[in-house]
Design goal:
Strand order of the largest sheet: 2-1-3-4
Helix content: 40-55%
Radius of gyration: 15 Å
CATH superfamily: Lumazine/riboflavin synthase
Largest sheet: 4 strands, parallel
Strand content: 15-25%
Shape: globular
Number of helices: 5
Number of domains: 1
Structural class: alpha/beta
Number of strands: 4
Distance between the termini: 14 Å
CATH topology: Rossmann fold
CATH architecture: 3-Layer(aba) Sandwich
C-alpha cells in the first residue's frame, strides 16, 4: 500500500501569491498571513502580484506558472456577496478558472478568496475569530507541492 502525504517544507521552492486590491482592508491581512506561513515553512522565494480584483487573479496566476515557473500559486481576494447576483457569478467563474489552471498546468493554485456575506464575516476570516484564510491557503500550497512531487516521483 502506498501512503503519500505532503511535507510542510517550502525550502528551495518558488511560490506565487496573487492578491486582489479590492477590499484591501481584508486582502492585506490575508497577504500578511500567507507570507508569515510561507516564511515559517522554509522561507521559499515568493513572488507577490497585486491585481485590481478577484476577477483578475486567474490570468496572473496562469502567467506566474507558465512564464515565471512558480511551484504553486496562492490566490487571495475577497468577494463580498451582498445583495446582487454579480458577486456569485464572479466567485463561481474565478474559482472555475483557478481550478482549470491547476488541472491544465499540474501546479497547485490554492483558494484564499473569501466569499462572505458582509465585511464583518470577512474580517473574522482574515485574522480575527476564525483564523486567517490566507495562512491556510499558503499552508495548502506548501503541502500540495510536496504531495504532487511525491506522486510524480513514484511513477511506475
Amino acid at each position: 500500500m502506498d501512503d503519500i502525504q505532503g511535507q510542510m517544507s517550502a525550502a528551495g521552492k518558488t511560490i506565487g501569491v496573487v492578491v486582489s486590491r479590492w477590499n484591501e482592508l481584508i486582502t492585506k491581512q490575508l497577504l500578511e498571513g500567507a507570507l508569515e506561513e510561507l516564511a515559517a515553512h522554509g522561507n521559499p522565494e515568493v513572488v507577490v502580484v497585486h491585481v485590481p480584483g478577484a476577477w483578475e487573479i486567474p490570468p496572473a496566476a496562469k502567467a506566474l506558472i507558465e512564464d515565471r515557473g512558480v511551484d504553486a500559486v496562492v490566490a487571495l481576494g475577497c468577494i463580498l456577496m451582498g445583495a446582487t447576483s454579480a458577486a456569485k457569478v464572479e466567485a463561481k467563474d474565478t474559482s472555475a478558472a483557478l481550478m482549470r489552471i491547476q488541472l491544465d498546468t499540474g501546479r497547485p493554485v490554492t483558494w484564499g478568496v473569501l466569499t462572505p456575506d458582509n465585511q464583518e464575516q470577512a474580517l473574522e476570516r482574515s485574522g480575527l475569530k476564525m483564523g486567517n484564510k490566507g495562512r491556510e491557503a499558503a499552508s495548502a500550497a506548501i503541502e500540495m507541492v510536496s504531495v504532487l512531487e511525491s506522486i510524480r516521483a513514484d511513477k511506475r
